[in-house]
Amino acid sequence: MVDNCTKWFLLNRYPDVPWWLIATIGFCFGLTNGFFWNRHLTFRARDFGSARSQYFKFAITNCVGLLLNLTITKMFLILLTQKLVHGENPEPRTVIFASILAIPFVAIWNFSAAKYWTFRAPKEPVQDQAHSE
């Protein structure tokens, strides 16, 4: 949401800046916002692991997500505009629509990476029953 709002604003304000650069700027705004909400609400991972380590992992997985988003958005732009190369940016609403169509694909990646790597709860050590009494 934060990234698409930023993208919409910048596409309309700076139409000569390439859409992919604006999408990357929007991504940067959304990264920290997404980390906070995922760490505190979605995965409730604030009680284990350092925030710095989790943020680093979150940034890495989301950079992969950004590359997926840019690639899939470009594919949808090609389908929507029937142009492989754009001399100038497509209409802002077309870029936003293509970006929204990419969300489900990227969300699967981002959620899976966050669940199984970034915010994974540490494995509890197995306690020996004989020694714990």
Question: Could you describe the 3D structure shown?
Answer:
The protein is mostly helical and about 130 residues long. The protein has one domain. The protein has five helices and no strands. The protein has helices at about 1-15, 20-40, 50-80, 90-120, 130. The protein is elongated and about 55 Å long. The termini are far apart. The mean pLDDT is about 90.
Feature tags:
mainly alpha, 0% strand, 133 residues, 74% helix, 5 helices
Helix/strand order, N-terminal first:
HHHHH
Radius of gyration: 19 Å
Please mark out the parts with pLDDT under 50 across 5 or more consecutive residues, or reply none.
none
Structurally, how many domains make up the residues? Answer: 1
Q: How far apart, in Å, are the first and last alpha carbons?
A: 52 Å
List the helices and strands and how they pair.
Layout: H1 2-13, H2 19-42, H3 51-81, H4 92-118, H5 129-132
Helix pairs in contact: 1-2, 1-4, 2-3, 3-4
Entry summary:
The chain is an all-alpha fold and 133 residues long.
